[in-house]
DNA sequence: GAAGCTCAAAAGTACTACTTATTCAAGATG
DNA sequence: CATCTTGAATAAGTAGTACTTTTGAGCTTC
């Protein structure tokens, strides 16, 4: 419990630049600052070290690394950035990642999904279309996330599958931030149905193309809002 | 030092399935097995926990998680898999990841690279072409890695940039495993030059297309060898 | 047989002592 | 005067002990 508190506090401080790269901390100093024991302080530093947020050297101390060295795929680091001042930049980065992965994931899903997954994907597409017509934005988002989550899982690539949280974050971040049109766009819904159909048919090229259209649309949408 | 030894040993055992998911370890047991102190054992477990390879619960012990839950982007886990029996599967997964990311990275590099980077990319392309003509496969690989590394960095997306090690691993894995033709393919070289030219010109679509052709070629090459 | 209580097991936390590596500087040596 | 050696101080690494908290399992009781 103490461990997590200290870790979150220190990690967030580093992730958001309160502690700038090159800053040196001594472990004794950390114990005092957070009123934690040596054990807790050491283990927290170990964790930060495995995330490559810091590096420890004898006789020097714990130094904060450059952002370029961080392990940017660590879920915790992503969370710290999204919850802090770096949120807009983090969302942009994650959106780019998502737009790179998903078309490829759709391709492999078309090749590897189980019959059951193909069925569920179609069903989700249908429900998506229905909630879109009803203009129920919050359940639309829910089904949208479920759709992309299932697709990533069906790609049978663990590294793709692991990005489901990232995709969920990007999708909710978009609606939550008032960056979405008041109702789901008909073309987007049609493209989701197209992806589901292509996966059902095992047509990799078609699935990839349709998903690429989806992420390109999202990309342009965001780019337009940055203007 | 002790810490790293124990971590590598235990981590590799989990990553390669010697310790199957669901296995329960007690920390005291680990101390004995590796002859390490309580401190070392605890910190190793902490690290494995942050990599989501294990989960610790009071009164139960340290249980090995399902592979689906692991943090597959952790460089250490990637290494353990590549160095173990899971190597072929890991290389396939990483190759898919790489083929998804690089076209997108090329796009953003075309939009965001510094003038200096654009120049260096062109120079690397030239050197690539020269070593290809000379059929110097090992220095060709070296420049190939440098080319992709620079491109990923120039994308200005930290999550893309971080995959440079992965790309390097995939490229060397391909040549090292005797999976490459005895000499670099002329089309691949031409495509690299095309990417460099598109980036230099700031033509995002063209850069993305050329890079997609490169990774598709690599994908088909590997798919053909699996047959 | 279900609800609740007790006990023990195992991780979590705290603290102390000792070891090792590394920096910095003073002093020796050329 | 420059350079190399040596040594002391420092801060992380490792080891070990003691205590706390949680929780699963068996037992009791109604």
Structural overview:
Two copies of one chain form a homodimer. Chain A has 227 residues and is mainly α. Helix content of chain A is 71%, strand content 4%. Chain A is built from eleven helices and three strands. Chain A has a three-stranded antiparallel β-sheet. In chain A, strand 2 (54-57) and strand 3 form a beta hairpin. In chain A, helix 6 (115-133) runs antiparallel to helix 7 (137-154). Chain A is elongated and about 60 Å long. The interface between A and B is medium-sized, with 33 and 33 residues. The structure holds a DNA duplex (30 and 30 nucleotides).
Features:
homodimer, 227 residues, mainly alpha, 3-stranded antiparallel β-sheet, 11 helices, 3 strands, elongated, DNA-binding
Secondary structure: elements and pairs:
2 copies of one chain form a homodimer.
Chain A: H1 2-15, E1 24-25, H2 27-34, H3 38-50, E2 54-57, E3 61-64, H4 75-82, H5 87-112, H6 115-133, H7 137-154, H8 158-161, H9 164-176, H10 186-201, H11 204-226
Antiparallel strand pairs in A: 1-3, 2-3
Chain A binds a DNA duplex (30 and 30 nucleotides) through residues 1-3, 26-28, 36-40, 42, 45, 56-62.
* Topology order of chain A in helix (H) and strand (E) letters: HEHHEEHHHHHHHH
Q: Which secondary-structure class do the elements of chain A indicate?
A: mainly alpha
Low-confidence stretches of chain A: none
Strand order of the main beta sheet of chain A, please?
1-3-2
User: What general form of chain A does the structure show?
Assistant: elongated
What percent strand of chain A?
under 5%
Q: Which two chains have the most extensive interface, and how many residues on each?
A: A-B, 33 and 33 residues
Number of helices of chain A: 11
* C-alpha-based Rg of chain A, rounded: 21 Å
Which percent range fits the helix content of chain A?
A: over 70%
- Overall pLDDT level of chain A: 92
Tell me the quaternary state: homodimer
Task: Please report the distance between the alpha carbons of the first and last residues of chain A.
Answer: 44 Å
Q: Describe the largest sheet of chain A.
A: 3 strands, antiparallel
Number of strands of chain A: 3
């Amino acid at each position: 419990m103490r461990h997590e508190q200290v870790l979150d506090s220190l990690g967030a401080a580093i992730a958001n630049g309160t502690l700038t790269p090159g800053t040196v901390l001594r472990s004794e100093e950390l114990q005092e600052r957070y009123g934690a024991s040596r054990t807790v302080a050491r283990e927290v530093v170990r964790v930060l070290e495995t995330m490559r947020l810091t590096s420890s050297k004898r006789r020097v101390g714990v130094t904060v690394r450059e952002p370029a060295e961080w392990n940017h795929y660590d879920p915790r680091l992503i969370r710290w950035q999204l919850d802090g001042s770096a949120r807009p930049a983090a969302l942009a980065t994650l959106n780019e990642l998502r737009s790179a992965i998903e078309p490829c994931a759709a391709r492999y899903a078309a090749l590897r999904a189980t019959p059951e997954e193909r069925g569920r994907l179609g069903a989700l597409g249908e429900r998506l279309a229905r909630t879109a017509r009803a203009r129920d934005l919050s359940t639309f988002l829910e089904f949208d996330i479920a759709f992309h989550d299932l697709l990533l899982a069906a790609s049978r690539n663990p590294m793709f599958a692991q990005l489901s949280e990232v995709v969920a974050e990007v999708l909710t971040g978009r609606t939550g931030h008032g960056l979405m049109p008041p109702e789901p766009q008909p073309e987007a819904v049609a493209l989701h149905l197209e992806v589901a159909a292509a996966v059902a048919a095992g047509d990799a090229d078609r699935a990839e193309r349709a998903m690429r259209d989806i992420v390109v649309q999202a990309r342009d949408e965001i780019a337009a809002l940055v203007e």
